[in-house]
Each structure stands twice: as C-alpha cells, then as structure tokens.
Amino acid sequence: METKMKKSLQGGMKNIVPNLELVFKVCYLVHLLMAFNAYFAGERIMNVTLVLALFFGGLMGIMRLIRIKDYITFPNILWLIAFIGSYAITALVNIRYGLFESAQYFVWLLFQFGLLYTFDWKREREEVRKEFHIVAYVLIVILTIYNIIGFIMLMQNHGFWHEAADGQIHRIGMAEWGRLHGLHADPNYGAVTSAVGLLLALYLMMRNKKIWIRLFLAITVLFQYLFIVFSVSRSGLIAAICGTAAFVGLYYLKKAKKYTMIVSIIAVVVVAGVMFGGSKLLINSYNTYMEYRAEEPGDDITKKEPTISREGDMEATGGDISNRRFSIWKSAIEIFISSPVTGVGFRNIIPYAKDQLPGTYILKVNNQYGDFDAMHNVIMDTLASQGIIGIAILAGFIVSTIVFLIKNFNAIREEHWVVNSVLFCCCLTIGISSMFVSQILYVNNPNTYLFWALLGYLIYSMKRDGERINRKAGKTKEVLK
C-alpha cells in the first residue's frame, strides 16, 4: 500500500514539476532583470519579485528533494555539490568577518546549481523546448523594452541620477563621461545580457516562419547590438563578437553543402568584421551628429562633450588600458596568498582586506575611488573567495564539462544542431565576458542566471542524444549476439 502511494505521489509530482519549473524560472529571471534595472533597483517593488522567486524556488527545491534520484545522476552535479560544500566551509572558517550575506548567497547558489543547471534528463524534449523558448522570449521582450528606451535617451543625449528607496544611486540614460547606461544599472552587465539576447533572437528567427514574429526579432537584434555598441563595454563587445561569430560558424559548419570548413571560417571572419567595424562606424556617426547638433542655435543640448568615448576612463586611471583590473587582480592574488586553502569568502573580501591587508589596492584609502568588493574575473573571484579548494573544484567541473561536450559531440542529431549551437555560444559569450566582469559565481545577476540555465539545457539536450546513440549501440550488440 505504501509503495503504491509513494508511486502515485511521485507520478503526480512529475506532472506538476514542469509547470512549476517554468513559473520559477520566469519569476527568477524577471526578478534579476528588474534588480539590475537602474530605475527599479533598490525600490520596494523588488521585495515582491524577491518573495515570488524564493517561494516558487522553495517549492521546486522541495519537489526535487522528493525525487532526488532523478536529478543526482545529472552530469557533473557532484562537482557542484562539492563547490557548495567548499563555499559553506569557507563561510564558517571566516565567520568573524560576517555570515549573513554569505548565507544569503548560499540560497542563490543552491538555486543556480540545483534548480537552473540540474535537470531530470528523462523529461520530454518537446516540453523542455517549449520551456526554453518561453524563457528566451521573456528575456528578449524585456531587454528590447530596456534598450529601445535607452536608445531614445541616447538620441536625446538625456541622462540623470536616480536615488532609490534604499539609498542606492544609479545613472539612467546617457552618462556625462561618454557612455550609454540606458536602464541598465551596470552597462557592462547590460551589454553581456544584450549579447545573449541577440543570439537567442537570431536562433528564434531561424525557428519561426511567421513574418511578424521574425520582424520583431530582427528589431530586437538591432537594439541589442546598438546597446552593446553605445555602452562602450569592451568586454561586452568582445564577448558578443566571439559568441555571434561562433554561432554563425557552427551553423554553416552543418548547413553548408560544400567546403563546409572554408565556408564556416569565412562566415566567422565576416561576422566578426561586420560587428567590430559596425561599432566603430556607429560611434563615429553618432559623435559627428551630436557635434553638429550642439552647434545648432537654439538646440537644447548643453553638454560640453556630447560624444561616446572611453577617454574619461583612461584619464581617470592614468592611461590604464585595463581600467584598474590589473591592480584589482593583484589584490586578489594577495588575498589568495594570505589565505590559500579556503579563501576568505566573497562577501568578506573587504572586511578581510581591511583587517589583514590594509595596503591592498581594492580598499578605497589606497585607490581614491572606492572599495572594490569583486575582482572582475571569475577565476580571481574564486581564488580569493574559496582558495585552492574552490579553484580545484571549479577546474574539475570545467574539464569534466568540456570532456562531456566533446564525448557527445558526434551524437548530436541534425535537427538539434542549431539549438545546441546557440546554447553553447550563449555560455561561451558569458564565459568570455567573465574574464573581465564578475559573474557566473558569487554575483546573483541575469548573466549568472543565463549561464547556468542555458548550460543546463545544453547538457540535457546532448545527454538525451548521447543516450539515444547508446541505446542503438546496445540493440546492435544484442542482434550480433
């Protein structure tokens, strides 16, 4: 009797979980997109989206624990469990520097690893495809609204400071130092998110035959690219070029009928050249236009330098091409050397530095700018935060994931080639940009969400194709016997 009840309960869970997963993933994504919107960040409405994300995430977590056997076998999950364990140990070892913020992010880490990345790989592919498409459309629609508003502000050369209810102050629109912030709280993060949105829009254009939807997606591709360009985010532009060029190259690698490798390489070079050259052309054209408008009598543009440029950053840092990153990375190494085994905990970096390394660059007293609580590089973040243990686990996960992708590469079915390519290239885009901004680990932002969610979809898709090949091979062996 108990066995029947247990099976009935698990069967009911299997029907409920897919819908709950979609609701959770949409709520979590919307929360993060609003949290990194300069107008909403720090406002009371964020408490509503936070509660919704935590509520549905908690329900989903409980249901996954009930059916843990369906998830614990997901590829490379043991590496992530080990990373969570290392994170907890580091938090306890460094408890004197603070525990509350470390505990807060511990919950988000569980969400990212356990709810976004991990899949029940036996779920129906069509069901997962629909979920992925809905998440992609939610991202694209919200980003397009953000970036259209930002573009209007750009053309009006309009910008202002906004103080939120919790005291946070953000720049909205154009910044007087020569870059577009739009509605993004951080233009670097916004540029990377837009690069992922651009890729997903390209993919959906290939999938959809309805003209009005393809027209909308073409418009969104344009506005994602325009924000990447006018935000003057070098990390965002580099990541966007690499990710988009790689996607087009992979597409032609499979679709070209002759000389596939040559066609693929040419496509990569052309796309990279057009995106890079287009960025220079657009910025020069905009600057020329704004200078012309500034000279017109009666124009309401009063800025002395209404141009897009990073010259202000270069002047402020004394010509440092890395925009302080080299100095910040040096501090990360200093923290790692002082606590090499477990690290100090990401949320404890500033308190630890003030206590143990008062002369290090990331402290405001030494750089005359502010306290840098992130290392602008996921490797440096991990070294400082979780030491040798954390970086070894991260390296193990990366290597195991690469081995899995290579091992299952030839198993990809032709009809899944494009979706797997875009998922891989989105993760590549975020991965490349994580060498210059803090994301993927420790920072709960849209790009971290997208990395783990899209990597989960990719691993699920490739594992399903790999299992199909293994089943066929098994049947062939049985016949031969």
Automatic annotation (TrEMBL):
Record-linked Pfam families: Wzy_C
Single GO molecular function: ligase activity
Transmembrane intervals: 20-39, 45-66, 78-99, 105-122, 134-154, 187-204, 211-230, 236-253, 260-283, 383-406, 418-440, 446-462
Matches recorded under InterPro entries: O-antigen_ligase-rel_domated, WaaL-like
Keyword Lipid metabolism: no
Keyword Plastid applies: no
PANTHER family attached to this UniProt entry: LIPOPOLYSACCHARIDE BIOSYNTHESIS PROTEIN PA4999-RELATED, TEICHURONIC ACID BIOSYNTHESIS PROTEIN TUAE
Protein name: O-antigen ligase family protein
The species this protein was found in: Candidatus Fimimorpha faecalis
Organism placement in taxonomy: Bacteria, Bacillati, Bacillota, Clostridia, Eubacteriales
